Amino acid sequence: MDKINNRELIRVLCEQGNDTISIDNPATGKTIGYIPSMSEEDINALIDKSAIAQQQWSEKTAKERADILLRWYQLIIDNADDLARIMTIEQGKPLSESRGEVLYGASFVQWFAEEGKRAYGEVIPSPRNDRKIITLKQPVGVTAAITPWNFPIAMITRKAAPALAAGCSMLIKPANQTPLSAYAIATLAHQAGIPEDCLTIVSSTRSSVIGKLFCQHPTISKLSFTGSTQVGRILMRDCAESIKRTSMELGGNAPFIVFDDADIDAAVEGAIASKFRNGGQTCVCANRFYVHQDIHDSFVEKFAQAMAQLTVGDGIDSSTQVGPLIDEKAKQNTLRLLTESLKQGATLVAGGEDRGGRFVTPALLTNVTSEMSVAQEEIFGPIAPIIRFSDEQNLIKEANNTIYGLASYFYSKDINRIFRVAEALQSGMVGVNEGIISTEVAPFGGVKQSGIGREGARLGLDEYLNIKYICLGGM
């Protein structure tokens, strides 16, 4: 089929059985479909098929693979509206955000289709006249990915596109909360000409079983994971037995700093975009707001006014700007952090209202200190805690005082400060006077316990390539 219809896809996946996983709509709580729960034997068989498919796929030229990937890209663009509706129905984010993610996800397919043709080796000057030294880049082989529920399409394409462009095959375990998007995007990949065994979706009620298999199966050469630092530690330990290559994009605790010379209106706009996108359920969203004491009150007032304009509701409604939290556990964690903050001395300026279901209105807290739970934990919800500061040096120490180092943000007009602070912040990515920093052309990843490796940019392709050195003697 040329078009993927969201109703048809969900109908096909809706046949309930003994070995199925139910999917619900977080806005309504109603079941919308089912996916298969595979056995360990099923998954082992898929891994064996993936190995055969990878050999055949790697024999294609980079241009042949690129042409197929570009067809996949075009199918994603052609089906963007249906893909966005599927995502909103199972994930909850506003329809406009879902469509934005579809286009963002497609951009990785387009980028790596072209970048795969530039996996250059090199000729190295030899120390001896009778030898030639060259290097080649070759696919690592069969790869696996475990992707999260908060970006159910983009986190797949960001991993699968470079793997496929490099000549690898990939098995993908999507989050059980949002698998319909994964099946939809894979369906389009197969329509484009990517062999089914080269891009395979696996699912099970026993997610830990899949994790173990991906980490320990001798056929799988590389694991890419996006998720919590806690789970990342477990996967890295399990991969260590076979010295498997890994890419880990893990938790964050992003500081958002507003200096006294900042454009306050621009900072508020950036704060809204960074904090409340996807209801605050992103790994790079602002987690701790540090605002200089001289502009604190002005920023808080304008931030509260902007937050009051946000519409909370079902993401399928075009007027919604903040959707539901993904599940009841996420909602209860958000309410817990609010309650603990107030007990610890914070002041609730606005929001924080339980709207029933999985809805919580965006909350603004002041009088927050760095010792409070809301400043120590990754919030993953619509809470904005504000911390006053006065001294830049102490601020940097406080901002860096975390095991995480994924993203940081700050607003300033002072060019000297911009370079000084950008270099001092211990994070893999820094947004300066900008609240949204993700793009396919830049490397995405963190330092410290926020992960290893990079996704996107040309570096994302190298994650799926081995370098082979060839020494030609007797020349």
Automatic annotation (TrEMBL):
Active-site residues, as the UniProt record annotates them: E249
PROSITE patterns reported in the protein's UniProt record: ALDEHYDE_DEHYDR_CYS, ALDEHYDE_DEHYDR_GLU
GO BP term, pick one: gamma-aminobutyric acid catabolic process
Gene Ontology molecular-function annotations: succinate-semialdehyde dehydrogenase (NAD+) activity
All residue ranges annotated as the Aldehyde dehydrogenase domain in the record: 18-470
Keyword Oxidoreductase among UniProt keywords: yes
Keywords, in A-Z order: Oxidoreductase
Family: Belongs to the aldehyde dehydrogenase family.
Protein name listed in UniProt: Succinate-semialdehyde dehydrogenase (NADP(+))
